[in-house]
Fold:
Amino acid sequence: MSVDTDLPTSDDESQSAREGRFTAAVVAAREAANISHQQAAEALRLEVHVVQALENADFSPLGAPVFIKGHLRAYEKLLGLQSGSLLEFYELIQPAVAMKVAVQKPETAKPANLAPWSLGLLIFLAMVGVAWFLLSGDADDESAAVPLAVEQQTVEKGDAAEPVAAFPAAVPESGVATLVLKFADECWVEITDTNGLLLESVQAAGAVRTLTGTPPFSFILGNAKAVSLMVDGVAYRLPERAVRGDTARFKLTAADIQAVKDSTR
Structure:
């Protein structure tokens, strides 16, 4: 079964009309396959309201575009649609969907205008301050030299003390780390490091990806159970608290990487 994606490119048809075409096509395909919203949600491992939102061209509950496309591919298979038909439809309507997110620029504060007499007062005060600094500089230098000499003498004659760290040494978020991901099943992936996006795509079963970047890393895995991760040659177990359903979202800092390495020693 195929979905009609022949949308007019003129401005005569509104965005809502295009989204309406998408909805009508998907609903017709689902009803033709005799699948309810509940059955579709169970098959796609989604909530019912998310499936309903998808059919209404509201893709916000699905997250990043890589996950939207992954769910659309899965829905195509479930409904017996021609591969890529829903994706083609999504590509036609998604530019306007992306524009729904408005970015507000912060207002720049305007400098206050100073009256002429205020400017003169500031100049006068600045001159007074410079004169006081020059006159008192010699006295300050002499008085400062005495405590410094005493402090140096105390250090030389006193017993050597063990240095005490006021705070634990921080693990620097620098250096390069190598990630190796193996996929036992299809998975949607988004990985970034401190410099930006490293990977955003759908990985096929059996795929192996090697990435090099600078921590901290941020991970979004659409099918976490299908992914095994190694960091600098050491296996890393995904934190249980990061997994919700099939999806995992977590960060991996330089300190986390060092802890993984230390655990193998």
Q: What stands out?
A: The beta strands are 177-183, 187-193, 196-203, 208-213, 217-221, 227-231, 234-236, 243-244, 247-252. Residues 116-157 form the longest helix (42 residues). Residues 5-10, 96-112, 139-173 have pLDDT under 50 and may be disordered.
